[in-house]
Design goal:
With 365 residues, the protein is α/β, with parallel strands linked by helices. It folds into 2 domains: 121 residues, Alpha-Beta Complex (Aspartate Aminotransferase, domain 1), CATH 3.90.1150; 233 residues, Aspartate Aminotransferase, domain 2 (3-Layer(aba) Sandwich), CATH 3.40.640.10. Helices cover 42% and strands 16% of the residues. The protein has 12 helices and 14 strands. It has an 8-stranded mixed beta sheet with strand order 2-9-8-7-6-3-4-5, sandwiched between helices. The chain starts with a strand and ends with a helix. The structure holds pyridoxal-5'-phosphate. The site of pyridoxal-5'-phosphate has 13 residues, from α3.
């Protein structure tokens, strides 16, 4: 059995996790505010961190809910704002765990196709015109999980126009936006839209450390109060030491250098995977991401990423099947995360994966 190389996990590589920096932040948090950090707090999270995040987003602290990971915030939102049968629009493909939660909560999922410029917003408009108006639109506008695509500036404007026209609440999930390798950052939907239209969510899992489990939501005040109630009912208060450590990191000026470091590591890995694409069979389609953690690939006609999952595993390579990121279809697609492994492993992994796919292409061709 060859050593295994995982392109499956959307997690930062070990080199991106700065244990010494976080140790110093946690020590400072306990020294400066030990009693509060070690006590039960309010359901909506550590107040000093909420204040910083509120200021960053031009909101009031009461609008910010800091959760044990942003996926938890997503679940609170489903539980408090929506009811089974509600129409929720998502990009197709979308984040597999979000899709799973929507399905588990009985939502009527409306998949909106996407291309290299993000969601096809005219397809959303057409669905609305045809009477399928979602209550919520879930979008990952920057370096999307799983496609790596970024919603263009023009589509951002049009998206807000459509959501205003049909009164659709938007959930903007942006854990990858700060990890940009090249090109200009685009304004977020939260900043572009009128107040009340957008809920913003992000996480420190990709920019600092997923094990800290610190994510957050910034919402209109009435929604924020409901979310805070759900948090307090579920876990009384979130893990305050993690939140206080992140607060120390931001307040002490350590977040920006950390993001620069992680961005450089991810750029190196993205470049290694771009190089490794030469191992893929002729006719494989992909677009090089400008940031984030993921490459999305479409295999040539006749090849199935679902069927080749086991042969790839036998060669020691793991990936996420595209079919797990859509409601139906997607058999020719897969997600490759370059984030968690080193450049040399990426080259080796792409060589092995390419060999599996090329062998299958010869058999089917
Ligand atoms: C788009 C997106 N949203 C949310 C999450 C969940 O992040 P967290 O670790 O904060 O729960 C992920 C993690 O993969 C993600 O890709």
């Amino acid at each position: 059995m060859p050593t295994s190389i995982s392109f499956a996990r959307g997690a930062p590589c070990p080199e991106a996790l700065s244990a010494d920096v976080i140790a110093a932040c946690a020590a400072a948090a306990l020294r400066d505010d030990g009693v509060r950090v070690l006590s039960y707090g309010t359901g909506n999270g550590y107040p000093p961190l909420r204040e910083l995040l509120a200021a960053e987003h031009g909101a009031q602290p009461d609008q910010v809910l800091v959760t044990n990971g942003s996926l938890q915030g997503f679940v609170f939102l489903l539980e408090t704002l929506l009811s089974p049968g509600d129409v929720v629009a998502v990009e197709s493909p979308t984040y597999d765990r979000a899709l799973l939660q929507l399905t588990l909560h009985g939502m009527d999922v409306l998949p909106i196709p996407m291309d290299a410029d993000g969601m096809d917003v005219e397809a959303l408009a057409a669905a609305c015109e045809a009477g399928r108006v979602p209550r919520l639109l879930y979008t990952i506008p920057n370096f999307q999980n799983p496609s790596g695509a970024t919603l263009s500036a023009e589509r951002r404007r049009r998206l807000i126009e459509i959501c205003d026209a049909h009164d659709i609440l938007v959930l903007e999930d942006d854990p990858y936006g700060r990890l940009r390798f090249e090109g200009e950052s685009l304004p977020g939907l939260w900043t572009m839209a009128d107040p009340g239209r957008v809920i913003f969510t992000s996480s420190f899992s990709k920019t600092v450390a997923p094990g800290l489990r610190v994510g957050y939501l910034v919402s209109p005040p009435a929604i924020a109060a409901k979310l805070a109630g759900a948090a307090s009912r579920t876990y009384i208060s979130p893990a305050l030491l993690s939140e206080a450590a992140i607060h120390q990191l931001i307040a002490g000026g350590g977040l920006e250098p950390n993001i620069e470091k992680v961005t450089a590591l991810m750029r190196e890995r993205r470049d290694a995977m771009t190089e490794g694409m030469r191992h893929m069979p002729e006719g494989t389609e992909f677009t090089t991401p400008q940031g984030g953690f993921f490459y999305w690939m479409t295999l040539p006609a006749g090849l199935s990423a679902d069927e080749l999952f086991e042969p790839a595993a036998a060669a020691g390579i793991a990936y996420v099947k595209g079919s797990d990121c859509v409601l139906e279809g997607g058999e020719r697609t897969l997600r490759l995360a370059y984030s968690g492994v080193g450049p040399a492993e990426i080259e080796e992994g792409m060589e092995r994966l390419g060999a599996v796919f090329r062998a299958a292409a010869v058999t089917t061709g």
